[in-house]
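Repro:
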Amino acid sequence: MSNLNAEVARVTERIVAKSRESRQRYLDLMAREGDKHGSRDFLSCSNLAHGFAAALEDKDSIATGRGPNLGIVTAYNDMLSAHQPYGRYPEQMKLYAREVGATAQVAGGVPAMCDGVTQGFDGMELSLFSRDTIAMSTAVAMSHAMFDGMALLGICDKIVPGLMIGALRFGHLPAVFIPSGPMPSGISNKEKQKTRQLYAEGKVGRAELLASESASYHSPGTCTFYGTANSNQMMMELMGLHMPGAAFVPPNTPLRQALTRAAVHRLAAIGRNGSDPRPMAQVVDEKAIVNACVGLLATGGSTNHAIHLPAMARAAGIQLDWEDLDQLSAAVPLIAHVYPNGAADVNHFHAAGGISYVIGELLETGLAHADVLTIAAGGMADYAREPWLESEALAWRDGPKTSGDPAILRKVADPFLADGGMRLVQGNLGRGTFKTSAVDPARWTIEAPVRVFDTQEGVTDAFKAGELDRDVIVVVRFQGPRANGMPELHKLTPPLGVLQDRGHKVALVTDGRMSGASGKVPAAIHITPEALNGGALALLQDGDLVRLSAEEGRLDVLTDLSGREPAQCREASAGMGRELFAVFRHLAGGAEQGGSAMLEMAGL
């Protein structure tokens, strides 16, 4: 592409160069897998009979191989609002498959936990490693070798990355991600945030808080703030793994149903024996990974993807690190203002032009690779179009060239910020991520004494006792993958926000994660090496002076730490099943490498 941005081109070339050997190993493996498992003919009659014994309407088709058999891997449960609509998908998808001479079976289910439910409680310590579990569950589902394509039903935080990692190990097959869409807008995010802060100050009670939260999270569909779940959906579009424009169409609507039908038809057409083979291993390449990074930065997406993107890339033999994200961030402007970066939610974003507008802008200005293979016949250009129903038939039309609301979407030439908002900060305390897009630039540099905690409960107790009512950098350590599974610390946002609103200089420094909805308080997160693994955070004591600067890309302690012994991490707790994940904690890699035990053990 002749107009490709020079910095995007340079970062892509860097990724290609450092990935050359690992990427080739992956492609060689996929070629061997395709040769060995490219058809069901290698299965014995007994194996095959087991595989279609219950497929009463499709036995003959599967037995004779008349058409492709599609494996559905579903993250359905009806506790997650985003995944509740998936309950009816498999039966519908089987009908859609038969329309084009194909068949479909549910290959397996994967766990799907909700960070919104576990946030701040013991179950959250399983969250990051649920991604590894999902990846392995996907591999178990596909290991039957009964399938010619993968239909992946998942939306939320660790679920899409886990499905992606697992599916990529079967990259000789085509794959399509099929979303279900966001719930209707509830109360404004600003109103919800205000009630949370009032509750943190003790000015409203639990009843008022629950009423507020219930007015925000209120029906089937994905939560409407632009956190990790909705960032996942944006990235699947930028990687060409959705039907174009599928990300933010509401659930239980005719257009949503038409997109699901089209996804099944398309998956049946792009298999090995079809007229237009598009194996997942070829779709997810270095350019697709860069496009996902660019989309994340241009829209101010979730910081969790500073961990998930390197992990997903590794599964495809691609080496991505925080230097790459930082350099792309410097080149990619922020062109979307969606909560927590602005007041709008994803429904407002979609109405203002949404993902088709963003992709059109990125392609037009050379910030995204156009010359990539996608599941759509027209490549990435198809993702600058938007779906609609014309006389009840699904069609696509050109996406808008102008924003429907300049407070939500802007041109690359007139961005909200010149920087994509995900900065690398590094220094004598380690390396971490700072999401600048949600933080007032006046707060990008904070220098203050630290108050050190080993648990997030310690922070909230100190806040309630009035011990933090001053300029302070709150350090929460022993929150990394090896210490306790790297839980999100999103419940710290309201009390820290209160302190900031009182006029104090406040920041958070942690080897843990924040939510995809990390907000207005400056934070250096994902610090690596983590405190348990030789990180300098273990040497800090109350009162040490720390300087955090997103402008300079620095994270430094200004106090001399020489001669200190590292603090000891408390033993990881049992209960809520956490003891079953001890092997994951023991073997987990660093945050910059994706925080995965499974990928470390596999040598990927």
